[in-house]
C-alpha cells in the first residue's frame, strides 16, 4: 500500500514466460484490495474520518474545556463517556464492514489457477499470478486476469465465454486465438513460447483492445476478439491457454469498479452547517454574558469581595470575564448536546431493524429477507428524486418464453376462456416425443392447426426450425440440448421443436430436422447474417425435392417494405396483431419466405461470391447483395416473445412515478431490447408525448440531436399550451431552424442513399436556456445509445445532455459500460443536487451502486457482488416501493420531527440559563403504510426537503427562545412577590428553579404529545413515563437520605416538596404552559383548516372510512391474473400510427462462423443448455415555483412519438466473421424477459390507478423513407388527461381500478 506511485503508462510491453523482464516495469500484481483499512491504519484513519464530522470536533473541544477546573462547572466524564461511546460504535460498525471486504478480497485472491512455470502446470493462487504468465483455464472457471487467448481445445482456436460479471449479459460470446498460436495446445510447446505483446495501457473500455504480437520476427494484430477479460466465465470449452496482459487493479473489471465512498445524508450535511451556526450563536451568548460579567464585577462585584472573593488566579474583572466566557460556553453547550447524536444513531438503528423485520419485503421463493446493510442512510430513502436501475436481473427475470404468434392472419395465444378457470397447459408428448417438457403454451387451437396439417402453420414452424444459428447437442437419444447465441433464438427454436418441427443437427452445408416424426435434411446454401442495421436474418435452403427457398425473420418495419404487395389484407391483419403484441410489451419478429428458381439462385450466388471477395467496401457490397435477394417475399406471420419481468415491476414503476421519482434505466443491452422492456414495464407508454432517440456517433451530431430534441419539446409544449394541435408543433419543431424532415445533423439515408445530407446543409441550432426547459409541459422520454452517451458525458456536453434528459420523465441509456453508469449518476449528483438511488444485481452494477447516494442490491442470479457493495438489499425490484414510500418516508418524517423537537426543547432549556445570567451577577406519526403506497404524493415533502431545513430550524429555535422567555419571566414575575401559606417568601433561587424546571418538562412533554400522530403503548410509556421520572428524580435529589449521605452535594433538602405544595406554584406552571402551548395549538388548527397538507387530508379520510366501517381501499400491489383476452386488458388505445415491438438479442458474425464449419465439433462435455441455466395544493405550488410543472391538461388527440433524433444512420455493415483479425464483436444485448403487466397509471392524480382500454386498430404502417433519411418517425396516440384542478384533493375520490386478465403458468 506504500508502493511509490508510478507515472501513467503510455504503452504496455509483455513478454511471455519471462517474469524477470516483466518485473522491471513494476506492473501491478493480481492481488485486489477493496478494503479501506488494515490493522495499522484503522485507528488513525477511522478517527480522522470521524472527526471530519463537525459535531465530533465540537464535542472534543468541549471536553478539553471541561478538563480546565477554573472554567468548568461540569464534570469531564459527562462529555467523554458519550463521545467515546459514539466514536466506538461508529468504529465497530466501520470495522465490521471492512472485515467483510477483507473476507471477500481474500476469497477472490486465494482462488487457484494453473500457471505454466518452468515447463509444467502448477497450482497458484490468483494473487500470485503475474503479468506475462501463461495460465490454463478449464470449463466453467472464472478468468483470473485479462489474458490474450493463445489456444483452446476447440477447433480453430475458438472458445465461448459468458460476460455477466462485466456487462450483465448472460448469452454466450465467441472469442478466438490468433492462428499462429492456435496449435500451441501442449504445455511443452507453450513453455517455449517467447512472443512479446505491445499494447494499449490499462483502461476501462470493455469492447476495445488494440495491440500487436511480435513472434519469430513477424507481427500479428490483436483485437478484443482475442482477449478474455477477468470476470468472464469459460463456457462449453474444455480448456484454453492465455497470456496474462493486465493483472489485478489494471484489469478492465477493476478499472470499471468505483471506489468505496463515505456516504452521508443531506440531514447530516445540514446538521454540520447548523452546528457551526449554533456554535457561533453560543459564542455570541457567551460573549454577551462575559461582557455583562465584566460590567457587574467592576460596578457591583467589588462590594462582595469581603465575603465572596475571587478564586485564584482571578485578580481583575477582565480576567473574570474571560473565564466566565468559557464557563458559559460549557454551561450553554446543551443547545447541541452530544445526546443529539446518540439519539440520532439509535433512531437510525431502529429504522434499520424495521426494514429487516418487514415481512412484506420477504421473498418466500428464495427465502431472502430485506436487509439494511447500513444504518446511516435511512432518512435519505425518503428524499430520492432519481432512481438508476439496471435492466437484466433487476427489472427482468432472465427468462424468455414463446407467448403468441400470428399465422396467415390468425392470432394464437389469446385466451378467452371464462373468468376464474385456470387454463390447461398443453401436452405435446403424444404429438412429439422430442418435445421440451419445460415449454408452456395454452392455446389448443395452434396445436390443432398443426395436427390437421395446415400448410401455413407447418411452413411457419419450418421457418423457425431452419432460420437460426443455434447449435444442437444430443446427449442421448431424444435428449436435445440447444446452445443458442441469444435467448430469443432459443425460445423460437424450442417452440418449433414442441410443435413438431425439431431442429436436430447441422453441418456447414446441411440442417437436419424432424418434421412431424419424419427426418428431413436440407442443404444449407447460404446464411444472410443478422446485424443491427439490417435487423433481419435469412437462410437459403434446398429441400430434398430440390426446391430452393429463402426464409427470413426480422423487424416488421424492414420486412413489410420487402413483401409482395399482392396480399395487403394479410399484411394489414398481421400488422394489427403486431400492434397488439407490442401494446402488451412483447418482443416481435415478422416471418416471410420466397421461392427461388435455380437461375435466380445461381445468379445471386455469383454476385455474392464477388462481393465476398471484394477488397474494398466488402461489408457494404455484401449488404447490398443481401438486400437484392430479400425482396418480393410472402408474409407467413409473426412471433411474440415475452421478456419476463419480475413480479410487480410495472406497478412499482408507476407508483414511483406518481411520487415524482424519475427512473433512468442504464443497461448494456441493445436499443430495441431496452425500449421494448421500457414499454413492458410501463416506464414508456403510448400516452407519452414523445420518445426521443439519440444515436449520433460524433460530438457534433450528438450536440445537434440534443438541441434539436429540446427544440421539439419546446415547440410541442407551446403547442399544447396554445391548443394548436399536432400540426402546429410539428411544423415548428422541424422548420424553426430551416431544417426540414430528412435534414439531420450528420444524417445519411439507410444505406447511404442519395437523400443523405451533410451537416453543413442544416444551420447549427443554438443552445436553449435551461430555464426555458423548466417550463416544458408534457411527458417525454429519452433513449440514448452508449456511443452517443460517451460524447454526451464529455465536460463541454454535460449541460446539453442534462438539460434534455432532466426534462424527460424517463431515460433509457443503452450499451453502457459499468463506468458510464457511474458517470451518469455522478453527473446528476453534481449538477442537480438531488438524492440518487442506484439498483442492480450484477458485478457490472457495482460502480453505479457505489456512486449513488443510496445503493440497492438485488440478490439475483448474477452473484452477490452487487449485494456486497450495496447499502440495502432485497430479492425483488417490487420491494423498492415499500423501501422508499413506506420506510424511507417514515424514516425521514420521524427524523425531521425528532430534530425539530430536539432543537426546540434544547433551546427552550438552554435559553432559560441565558436569561438567568442577567439575574445572577453573570456567574456563571403520520399515515399508515398502505396509505403511503396509495397516495405517492405523500413522498414529495422529502424530495423538496420541506420537513427539516434551515427555515424549519429557525422556526424551531424561535419557538424555543419564545418558550424560554415565557418559562423564565412568568415564574420570575409571579414568584418575586409571592409568599407561601405561612407567609415565607417564595422568591428564593431553589423554589424558582424547581418551578421553572417543572414548567419546562411539562411544556416539552405536551409539545411532543402534540407532535405525535399515532399513540401506541410505547408512546404513552416514554412520554408520560419521562414526566413521572422527572418528579421521581427531583424528589430523590431533595430527599433526606441523599442529604445525610452527601450533604455537600445535596444541600437543598426538602425544597422540591415544599415548593410543589404551594398552589401559586402550580398556577404559575399552568399559566406558563398555557402561554407556551396555546399559540401552537391555535396555529396548527388554523393551518389544518385553512391550508391542510396532503397527509392531514389522508388521515381525515381514513378516520371517516373507519367510522363508516368501509374497506380501506384496494392496494396497488398485485393485479389479479385470470382468464380472459389479453387484448381486453390492453393499456392505452392507439392512435394513427403504430410502434414496432421488434427486439432481437442477436449478434452478427455467427452466420459465417457456422457456414465456415469452424465451430462444428461434438463436445465431450455434456453440458446443460446455456439458455436454460438461468431458469397537494401546497406541494404543487412549491414545485411549480421550482420546476414549473405541467399546467392543467388539454383534451384532444396528441401524438406520442417515437422519434429518432439521429443525425445519421451508420453505413450498412455485415461482419463476415468473428475470425477476422481486425474485427470486434459488439457488446450483445442481454436476453431476459417478463410477462407484460397490462397495467397503466394515471399520473394526473396522486392515487395510483390502473386503467384498461381495448386497442384500436392500427393504421397501416407509414413509409420507411422518413427512417431512411435519419429523422423522427412518430407513433401517435392519446396523451394523458391531467387533473384540471391542479391539486391533489381530486385523488381522494373514488378511483376505479380495472385489471388486465391473462394467463400465466
SSE inventory with pairings:
Elements: E1 12-15, H1 19-23, H2 42-50, H3 54-66, H4 77-109, E2 112-117, E3 120-125, E4 134-138, E5 146-152, E6 158-163, H5 164-167, E7 169-176, H6 187-191, E8 196-199, E9 211-215, E10 218-222, E11 227-228, E12 233-235, E13 239-246, H7 252-255, H8 266-299, H9 317-331, H10 339-356, E14 371-372, E15 384-389, E16 396-407, E17 410-412, H11 444-451, H12 455-466, E18 471-476, E19 479-483, H13 487-498, E20 501-507, E21 510-515, E22 518-528, E23 536-542, E24 548-554, H14 556-559, H15 568-583, E25 587-596, H16 598-612, H17 618-629, E26 634-645, H18 649-658, E27 662-666, H19 671-680, E28 690-694, H20 699-722, H21 726-735, H22 770-773, E29 780-784, H23 786-792, H24 798-805, E30 810-813, H25 818-832, E31 835-840, H26 846-851, E32 854-858, H27 865-869, E33 872-874, H28 880-917, H29 929-934, H30 940-943, H31 950-975, H32 989-1011, H33 1017-1037, H34 1040-1045, H35 1055-1060, H36 1063-1090, H37 1094-1108, H38 1150-1156, H39 1177-1187, E34 1201-1204, H40 1265-1268
Parallel strand pairs: 15-27, 15-31, 27-30, 28-29, 28-34, 29-30, 31-32, 32-33
Antiparallel strand pairs: 1-8, 2-3, 2-4, 4-13, 5-11, 5-13, 6-7, 6-12, 8-9, 9-10, 14-33, 16-17, 16-26, 18-19, 20-21, 21-22, 22-23, 23-24, 24-25, 25-26
Helix pairs in contact: 2-4, 3-4, 8-9, 10-28, 12-13, 16-17, 20-21, 20-24, 28-31, 28-32, 31-32, 31-36, 32-33, 32-36
Amino acid at each position: 500500500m506504500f508502493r511509490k506511485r508510478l507515472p501513467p503508462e503510455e504503452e504496455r510491453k509483455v513478454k511471455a514466460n519471462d517474469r524477470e523482464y516483466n518485473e522491471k516495469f513494476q506492473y501491478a500484481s493480481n492481488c485486489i484490495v477493496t478494503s479501506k483499512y488494515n490493522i495499522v491504519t484503522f485507528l488513525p484513519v477511522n478517527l480522522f474520518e470521524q472527526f471530519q464530522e463537525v459535531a465530533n470536533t465540537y464535542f472534543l473541544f468541549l471536553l478539553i474545556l471541561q478538563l480546565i477546573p477554573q472554567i468548568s462547572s461540569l464534570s469531564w466524564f459527562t462529555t467523554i463517556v458519550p463521545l467515546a461511546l459514539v466514536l466506538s460504535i461508529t468504529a465497530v460498525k466501520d470495522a465490521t464492514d471492512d472485515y467483510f471486504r477483507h473476507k471477500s478480497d481474500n476469497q477472490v485472491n486465494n482462488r487457484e489457477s494453473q500457471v505454466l512455470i518452468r515447463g509444467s502446470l502448477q497450482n497458484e493462487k490468483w494473487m500470485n499470478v503475474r503479468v506475462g504468465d501463461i495460465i490454463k483455464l478449464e470449463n466453467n472457471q472464472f478468468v483470473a486476469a485479462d489474458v490474450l487467448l493463445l489456444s483452446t481445445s476447440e477447433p480453430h482456436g475458438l472458445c465461448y465465454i459468458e460476460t455477466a460479471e462485466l456487462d450483465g449479459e448472460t448469452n454466450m460470446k465467441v472469442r478466438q486465438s490468433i492462428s499462429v498460436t492456435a496449435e500451441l495446445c501442449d504445455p511443452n510447446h507453450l513453455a517455449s513460447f517467447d512472443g512479446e505483446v505491445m499494447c494499449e495501457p490499462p483502461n476501462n473500455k470493455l469492447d476495445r483492445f488494440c495491440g500487436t504480437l511480435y513472434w519469430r520476427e513477424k507481427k500479428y494484430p490483436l483485437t478484443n476478439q482475442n482477449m478474455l477479460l477477468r470476470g468472464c466465465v469459460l463456457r462449453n470449452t474444455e480448456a484454453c491457454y492465455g497470456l496474462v496482459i493486465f493483472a489485478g487493479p489494471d484489469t478492465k473489471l477493476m478499472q470499471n469498479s468505483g471506489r468505496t465512498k463515505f456516504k452521508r445524508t443531506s440531514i447530516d450535511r445540514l446538521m454540520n452547517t447548523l452546528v457551526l451556526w449554533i456554535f457561533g450563536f453560543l459564542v455570541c451568548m457567551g460573549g454577551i454574558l462575559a461582557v455583562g460579567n465584566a460590567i457587574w464585577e467592576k460596578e457591583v462585584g467589588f462590594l462582595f469581595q469581603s465575603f465572596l472573593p475571587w478564586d485564584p488566579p482571578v485578580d481583575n474583572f477582565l480576567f473574570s470575564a474571560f473565564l466566565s466566557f468559557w464557563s458559559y460556553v460549557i454551561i450553554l453547550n446543551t443547545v447541541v448536546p452530544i445526546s443529539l447524536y446518540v439519539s440520532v444513531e439509535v433512531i437510525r438503528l431502529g429504522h434499520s431493524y424495521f426494514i429487516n423485520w418487514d415481512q412484506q419485503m420477504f421473498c418466500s421463493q428464495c427465502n431472502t429477507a430485506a436487509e439494511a446493510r447500513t444504518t446511516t442512510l435511512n432518512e435519505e430513502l425518503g428524499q430520492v428524486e432519481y432512481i438508476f436501475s439496471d435492466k437484466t436481473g433487476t427489472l427482468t427475470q432472465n427468462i424468455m418464453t414463446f407467448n403468441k404468434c400470428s399465422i396467415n392472419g390468425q392470432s394464437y395465444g389469446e385466451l378467452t376462456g371464462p373468468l376464474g378457470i385456470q387454463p390447461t397447459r398443453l401436452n405435446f408428448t403424444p404429438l412429439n416425443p422430442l418435445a421440451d417438457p419445460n415449454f408452456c403454451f395454452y392455446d389448443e387451437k395452434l396445436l390443432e392447426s398443426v395436427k390437421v396439417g395446415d400448410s401455413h402453420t407447418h411452413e411457419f414452424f419450418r421457418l423457425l426450425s431452419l432460420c437460426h444459428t443455434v447449435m444442437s447437442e444430443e446427449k442421448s437419444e431424444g435428449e436435445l440440448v440447444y446452445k443458442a447465441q441469444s435467448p430469443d433464438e432459443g425460445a423460437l427454436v424450442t417452440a418449433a421443436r414442441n410443435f413438431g418441427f425439431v431442429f436436430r443437427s447441422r453441418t456447414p452445408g446441411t440442417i437436419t430436422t424432424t418434421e412431424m416424426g419424419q427426418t428431413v435434411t436440407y442443404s444449407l446454401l447460404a446464411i444472410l447474417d443478422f446485424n443491427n442495421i439490417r435487423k433481419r436474418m435469412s437462410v437459403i435452403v434446398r429441400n430434398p425435392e430440390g426446391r430452393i427457398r429463402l426464409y427470413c425473420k426480422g423487424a416488421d418495419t424492414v420486412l413489410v417494405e420487402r413483401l409482395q404487395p399482392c396480399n395487403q389484407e394479410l399484411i394489414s391483419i398481421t400488422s394489427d396483431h403486431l400492434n397488439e403484441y407490442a401494446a402488451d410489451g412483447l418482443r416481435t419478429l415478422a416471418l416471410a419466405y420466397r421461392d427461388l428458381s435455380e437461375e435466380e439462385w445461381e445468379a445471386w450466388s455469383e454476385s455474392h461470391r464477388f462481393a465476398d471477395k471484394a477488397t474494398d467496401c466488402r461489408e457494404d457490397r455484401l449488404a447490398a447483395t443481401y438486400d437484392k435477394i430479400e425482396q418480393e417475399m410472402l408474409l407467413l406471420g409473426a412471433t411474440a416473445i415475452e421478456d419476463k419481468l419480475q413480479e410487480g415491476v410495472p406497478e412499482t414503476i408507476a407508483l414511483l412515478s406518481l411520487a415524482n421519482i424519475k427512473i433512468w434505466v442504464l443497461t448494456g443491452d441493445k436499443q430495441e431490447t431496452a425500449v421494448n422492456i421500457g414499454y413492458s414495464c410501463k416506464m414508456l407508454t403510448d400516452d407519452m408525448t414523445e420518445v426521443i432517440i439519440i444515436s449520433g456517433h460524433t460530438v457534433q451530431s450528438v450536440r445537434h440531436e440534443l438541441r434539436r430534441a429540446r427544440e421539439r419539446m419546446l415547440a410541442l409544449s407551446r403547442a399544447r399550451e396554445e391548443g394548436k394541435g399536432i400540426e402546429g408543433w410539428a411544423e415548428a419543431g422541424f422548420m424553426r431552424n430551416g431544417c426540414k424532415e430528412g435534414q439531420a445533423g450528420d444524417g445519411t439515408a439507410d444505406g447511404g442513399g442519395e437523400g443523405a445530407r451533410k451537416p453543413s446543409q442544416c444551420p447549427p441550432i443554438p443552445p436553449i436556456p435551461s430555464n426555458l426547459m423548466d417550463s416544458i409541459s408534457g411527458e417525454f422520454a429519452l433513449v440514448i445509445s452508449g456511443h452517443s452517451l460517451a460524447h454526451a458525458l464529455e465536460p463541454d456536453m454535460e449541460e446539453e445532455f442534462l438539460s434534455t434528459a432532466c426534462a424527460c420523465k424517463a431515460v433509457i441509456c443503452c450499451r453502457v459500460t459499468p463506468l458510464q453508469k457511474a458517470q451518469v449518476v455522478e453527473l446528476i449528483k453534481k449538477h442537480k443536487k438531488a438524492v440518487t438511488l442506484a439498483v442492480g444485481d450484477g458485478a457490472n452494477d457495482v460502480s453505479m451502486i457505489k456512486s449513488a447516494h443510496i445503493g440497492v442490491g438485488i440478490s439475483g442470479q448474477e452473484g452477490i457482488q452487487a449485494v456486497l457493495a450495496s447499502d440495502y438489499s432485497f430479492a425483488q425490484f417490487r420491494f423498492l416501493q415499500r423501501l422508499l414510500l413506506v420506510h424511507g418516508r417514515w424514516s425521514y418524517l420521524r427524523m425531521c420531527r425528532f430534530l425539530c423537537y430536539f432543537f426546540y426543547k434544547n433551546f427552550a432549556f438552554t435559553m432559560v440559563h441565558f436569561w438567568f445570567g442577567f439575574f445572577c451577577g453573570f456567574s456563571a406519526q403520520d399515515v399508515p403504510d398502505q396509505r403511503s403506497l396509495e397516495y405517492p404524493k405523500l413522498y414529495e415533502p422529502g424530495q423538496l426537503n420541506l420537513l427539516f431545513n434551515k427555515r424549519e430550524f429557525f422556526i424551531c429555535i424561535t419557538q424555543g427562545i419564545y418558550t424560554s422567555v415565557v418559562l423564565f419571566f412568568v415564574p420570575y414575575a409571579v414568584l418575586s412577590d409571592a409568599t407561601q401559606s405561612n407567609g415565607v417568601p417564595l422568591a428564593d433561587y431553589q423554589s424558582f428553579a424547581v418551578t421553572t424546571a417543572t414548567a419546562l418538562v411539562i411544556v416539552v412533554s405536551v409539545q411532543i404529545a402534540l407532535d405525535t400522530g399515532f399513540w401506541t403503548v410505547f408512546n404513552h410509556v416514554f412520554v408520560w413515563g419521562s414526566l413521572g421520572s422527572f418528579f421521581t428524580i427531583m424528589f430523590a435529589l431533595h430527599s433526606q437520605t441523599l442529604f445525610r449521605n452527601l450533604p455537600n452535594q445535596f444541600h437543598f433538602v426538602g425544597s422540591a416538596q415544599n415548593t410543589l405544595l404551594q398552589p401559586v406554584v402550580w398556577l404559575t406552571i399552568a399559566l406558563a404552559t398555557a402561554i407556551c402551548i396555546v399559540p401552537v395549538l391555535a396555529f396548527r388548527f388554523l393551518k389544518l383548516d385553512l391550508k391542510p397538507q396532503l397527509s392531514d387530508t389522508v388521515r381525515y379520510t381514513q378516520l371517516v372510512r373507519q367510522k363508516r366501517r368501509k374497506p380501506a381501499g384496494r392496494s396497488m400491489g398485485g393485479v389479479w391474473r385470470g382468464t380472459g383476452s389479453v387484448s381486453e386488458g390492453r393499456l392505452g388505445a392507439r392512435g394513427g400510427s403504430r410502434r414496432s415491438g421488434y427486439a432481437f438479442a442477436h449478434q452478427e458474425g455467427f452466420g459465417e462462423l457456422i457456414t465456415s464449419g469452424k465451430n462444428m465439433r461434438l463436445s465431450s462435455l455434456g453440458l446443460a443448455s446455456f439458455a436454460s441455466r438461468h431458469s397537494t395544493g401546497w406541494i404543487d405550488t412549491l414545485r411549480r415555483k421550482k420546476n414549473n410543472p405541467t399546467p392543467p391538461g388539454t383534451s384532444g388527440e396528441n401524438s406520442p412519438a417515437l422519434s429518432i433524433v439521429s443525425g445519421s444512420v451508420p453505413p450498412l455493415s455485415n461482419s463476415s466473421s468473428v475470425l477476422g483479425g481486425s474485427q470486434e464483436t459488439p457488446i450483445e444485448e442481454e436476453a431476459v424477459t417478463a410477462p407484460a403487466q397490462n397495467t397503466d397509471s394515471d399520473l394526473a392524480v396522486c392515487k395510483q390507478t390502473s386503467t384498461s382500454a381495448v386497442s384500436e386498430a392500427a393504421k397501416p404502417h407509414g413509409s420507411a423513407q422518413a427512417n431512411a433519411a435519419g429523422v423522427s418517425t412518430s407513433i401517435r396516440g392519446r396523451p394523458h388527461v391531467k387533473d384540471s384542478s391542479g391539486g391533489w384533493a381530486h385523488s381522494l375520490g373514488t378511483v376505479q381500478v380495472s385489471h388486465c386478465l391473462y394467463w400465466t403458468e
